[in-house]
What does this fold into?
Amino acid sequence: MGEGYGSYIVDAKKNVSIPNIISENSHVQEGGRGKPQFCKAKQKIAIIIPFRNREPHLTIWLQYMLPFLQKQQGDFGIYVVEQIRNTTFNRAKLMNVGFSEAKKDYDYNCFIFSDVDIIPMNDRNLYRCSENPKHMANSLDKFNFRLPYETIFGGVVAFTKEQFLKINGFSNRFWGWGGEDDELYNRIVAAGMKIERPDPEIARSTMIFHNRDTGNEATGKSFGLINKAAQFMHLDGLSSLKYDVIKHTRHKLYTNITVNIGTQL
Ligand code: UD2
Ligand code: MN
It folds into this structure.
């Protein structure tokens, strides 16, 4: 188990530096863009990472994911969507911002929304979109490589542009930890789609250990919205998204979009 073809060990404690990652990924272009060198990819993939104050995780993520995505011959761009300080975190809204901003850069047709702390442990786990919205964090060490419940849809998910537009993106109304992933699942069902998952043996991934962040406490206020997805999805999401870009920076390994997404009313 777990030692099959394509698998490798993720060492989250290894000390790596950004300059090192840059020199090891010389084909990655400004802003974290990669392209296959000898062919043309069908999917143009934007990877959206919600972010605040997790620099060590981002470094590890880049260390593993840049070689991984290049090996898979991806045509990709990395977007780190960073929420400004002193406001309650809103993961889902940051995802919507990432989608809207990445779209302006390039003709992306696949969007992979990934937590900064999840790293696949097998390079046969294709970071690609499918016919259905795809849940890719279905085999995590944290949950003993099993689904904690059948409808879980957090961690890493992949949508084609059409699939994401069909559900009007994520809800913007989930402030603080939890619930936004379950509401997203309900949107997919309400839109008449179903989800798919990769083979759990191939999808084995690690979640870097962490405690709950300050500023991302579960407020519980939004949990009542989980079962109202069908009712609200066309009013609350991409169509109602408002934010101010504070900073848009092209780093060598990723594009950082720092945003003010407001606060809960
Ligand atoms: C679970 C889900 C996650 C999300 C969350 C509830 C899985 C495997 N993961 O993860 O997708 O639904 O519950 O919201 O199902 N972040 C920051 N800074 C912060 C807070 C959060 O960068 O201060 C980002 C970061 O990318 C992080 C993600 O938000 O990985 C999710 O937060 P978490 O890792 O604390 O949540 P977790 O592990 O309980
Ligand atoms: Mn986490």
Notes: The mean pLDDT is 97. The chain has one domain: 18-260. Residues 18-260 form a domain with the Spore Coat Polysaccharide Biosynthesis Protein SpsA; Chain A fold (CATH 3.90.550.10). The pocket of UD2 (ligand 1) is lined by residues 49-54, 89, 91, 115-117, 137, 140, 152, 154-155, 177-178, 180-181, 207, 212-213, 215-216 (CB under 6 Å).
